[in-house]
């Protein structure tokens, strides 16, 4: 995380209660994480986010107990002003999406940060807390993170549908996409490893 966003003045980020919110999702917490960790659904579920990000260059970087999804864009959307020597210098990066095993997301945008904490309540109910930290509010309206509430509600709809679908007697698991589901595969391998003890 330091390597990618250490250039930001994180000490200047301020918590914004009016933009922070809890969501109740009628689905298993791991399904919510699965959804976060794959990019397949973006063009089909999030039309505005898909316009802000270049789906073709969306990148997933795996670490031991985390992964990073990098959302690239063009100059029509707010992107980071990356310093010389930065790993992504010269690229138009609109968002850095960090997932930390098992249940935390740190979504960095040019305007600030959305921290998401995924908390299981029951086997089919999850609370997701969005904690918003602002740095440059003027960049919020034209960014990949401009519509956090709308994107969250679109995700809830999909995840709750998956929850219903996996209960069907017709459900069968399939193979992972090697280009779009590296994060999901990584997460499920970690869960399996920890459950096996």
Summary of the model, kept short:
With about 200 residues, the chain is of the alpha+beta class. The protein contains six helices and eight strands; from the N terminus they run H-E-E-H-H-H-E-E-E-E-E-E-H-H. The longest helix is centred in the last third of the chain and has 19 residues, at about 150-165.
Task: Describe the SSE topology.
Blueprint: H1 2-5, E1 14-15, E2 21-25, H2 29-36, H3 42-45, H4 47-52, E3 59-62, E4 66-72, E5 93-100, E6 104-109, E7 112-122, E8 125-134, H5 148-166, H6 182-196
Antiparallel strand pairs: 1-8, 2-8, 3-4, 4-5, 5-6, 6-7, 7-8
What attributes does this structure have?
eight-stranded antiparallel beta sheet; alpha+beta; Naphthalene 1,2-dioxygenase Alpha Subunit, Chain A, domain 1; 197 residues
